[in-house]
């Protein structure tokens, strides 16, 4: 497929009308036309000179692909909207014209590195289990962490009927007076509440959790709530899938 061609569902998604999956549903429901003809088959390729309509309204142009790194603060939901009226990560992006989506999730009370983009291809690659993208967390836990306590996490533990992949875990600090510990854990899976559930499983419930790093992106230079646009080099590295083999030094 040439640079000027793109699958129809991707064009619809990048126009900000729906997620990639939502765009696929629109197509199969017969809501999308190409050059005046209804298309219901997925995978159809369109070029820059083709006219695409959704529900009778033309897509004026393809949205420029953008990529951002956010230091997500506590008390913000990782969604595009919230039925409870809570602040979302999109509310923090004040000067972005494109409609972007978070890559994966962070819990309401979890802080740290979060990517946002309107590039559905990259987002799907990053979130696919086979990509094995490293996610590095620093957790403050209740209890005294020991090598023995954390050992099961390095082998994998059963969470909600499924065994987790082996994690890399280190003890950063122990406060025997307050009976708390700081633990760094590296995983590549993306289940909901996974780090909290894993540490709870070994008797170390999480008090605070920060994602320090996602793939090769860290929080250096970003205060809580701040974000930055990815550099051209970083975007190329993502597209080259170098992140699959990345490991923290």
From TrEMBL:
Biological process, per Gene Ontology: enzyme-directed rRNA pseudouridine synthesis
Domain RNA-binding S4: 6-69
Organism field: Leuconostoc citreum (strain KM20)
Protein name in the entry: Pseudouridine synthase
GO molecular function (one): lyase activity
One cellular component (GO) term of this entry: cytosol
Family per record: Belongs to the pseudouridine synthase RsuA family.
InterPro entries associated with the record: PsdUridine_s_RsuA/RluB/E/F_cat (IPR042092), PsdUridine_synth_cat_dom_sf (IPR020103), PsdUridine_synth_RsuA/RluA (IPR006145), PsdUridine_synth_RsuA/RluB/E/F (IPR000748), PsdUridine_synth_RsuA/RluB_CS (IPR018496), RsuA_PseudoU_synthase (IPR050343), S4_RNA-bd (IPR002942), S4_RNA-bd_sf (IPR036986)
Keywords on record: Isomerase, Lyase, RNA-binding
EC number(s) from the headed UniProt entry: 5.4.99.-
Family matches, as NCBIfam families: pseudouridine synthase (TIGR00093)
């Amino acid at each position: 497929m040439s640079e000027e061609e793109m699958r129809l569902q991707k064009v619809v998604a990048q126009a900000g009308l729906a997620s990639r999956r939502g765009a696929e549903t629109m197509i199969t429901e017969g809501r999308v036309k190409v050059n005046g003809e209804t298309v219901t088959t997925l995978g159809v390729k369109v070029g820059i000179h083709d006219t695409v309509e959704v529900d009778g309204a033309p897509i004026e142009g393809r949205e420029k692909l953008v990529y951002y790194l956010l230091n997500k603060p506590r008390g913000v939901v990782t969604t595009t909207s919230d039925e409870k009226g809570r602040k979302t990560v999109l509310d923090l992006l004040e000067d972005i014209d494109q409609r972007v989506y978070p890559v994966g999730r962070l819990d309401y009370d979890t802080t740290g590195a979060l990517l946002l983009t309107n590039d559905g291809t990259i987002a799907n690659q990053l979130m696919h289990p086979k990509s094995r993208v490293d996610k590095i967390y620093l957790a403050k836990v209740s209890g005294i962490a020991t090598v023995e306590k954390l050992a099961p996490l390095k082998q994998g533990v059963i969470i909600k009927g499924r065994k987790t992949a082996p994690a890399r875990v280190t003890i950063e600090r122990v406060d025997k007076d307050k009976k708390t510990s700081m633990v760094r854990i590296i995983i590549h899976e993306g289940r909901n509440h996974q780090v909290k559930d894993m540490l709870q499983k070994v008797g170390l419930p999480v008090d605070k959790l920060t994602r320090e790093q996602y793939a090769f992106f860290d929080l250096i230079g970003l205060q809580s709530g701040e974000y930055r646009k990815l550099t051209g080099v970083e975007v190329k590295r993502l597209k080259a899938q170098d992140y699959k083999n990345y490991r923290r030094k």
